[in-house]
TrEMBL record:
Protein name: Class I SAM-dependent methyltransferase
Listed Pfam families: Methyltransf_25
Listed GO biological process terms: methylation
GO-annotated molecular function: methyltransferase activity
Xref: SUPFAM superfamilies: S-adenosyl-L-methionine-dependent methyltransferases
Keyword Methyltransferase annotated: yes
Keyword Transferase (UniProt): yes
Keywords, comma-separated and alphabetical: Methyltransferase, Transferase
InterPro entries the UniProt entry points to: Methyltransf_25 (IPR041698), SAM-dependent_MTases_sf (IPR029063)
Domain Methyltransferase: residue ranges: 40-135
Amino acid sequence: MFGYYNRLSSEVYDLDKPVGHSFGDVEFYSERLNSLDGKILEPATGTGRMLIPLLQKGVDIEGFDSSSDMLGICRKNCEEKNLNPKLFEATMESFSVNMEYDAIIVPTGTFLLLHRREESIKALKNFHRHLRSGGKLIIDILLQSEISLGKVSTKSWECKNGDLITLENKIVEVEYVQQYTISYGRYDRWRNGKLIESELERFPLRWYGIEEFVMILENVGFKDLVISADYNRGLYPNSSNQIVTFEAAASK
């Protein structure tokens, strides 16, 4: 019944966060990667918002996503810019390639979509396994702030062809012990005032404490951690509204 980054939600992502759209992360990640000569991997690369600007700056980066619809849009966006990176369908916790990367990046809270703790630990171990010794993991998380259980929010986007896509979203479950929320979203496509397509989505999102995540990374085998707030490297967070970036090196 419920999809997950299927056609409508993937199209909305591309409309809402187009290629090159930055929260400060595109510039931050570009600066952190520009000294690396080896290959970079972006799990959950989505529609290419981050991947394509990095490719255009000469970064040797490839990506994967669990959503075929997201990858389809990413490939189209790459083709429009005469780029042909390696892209493949996989999940963060189970991907397997015969490659050790210089860096693996997971920007802007995407990692939190792994809402079950065992899945997230498995993914971090998988990242560690695919990094060379000393290779970098750069990963963002969002902190938990106010949770509005049951509150309905709505947004809309106009498509290039004149269609209107609307989203009605609400948090329906909060698991305080296991540290995640579940939201339900309904996407509707309207054309000339008529509803022509609908899509339901179940959207999980995990949260971590900062020092909790530090301990998890260290237990997996990462070292030399640097914590940054809102893409100011080395600035420790002081607000729950900040994006928190962890940069660490794989110890083997």
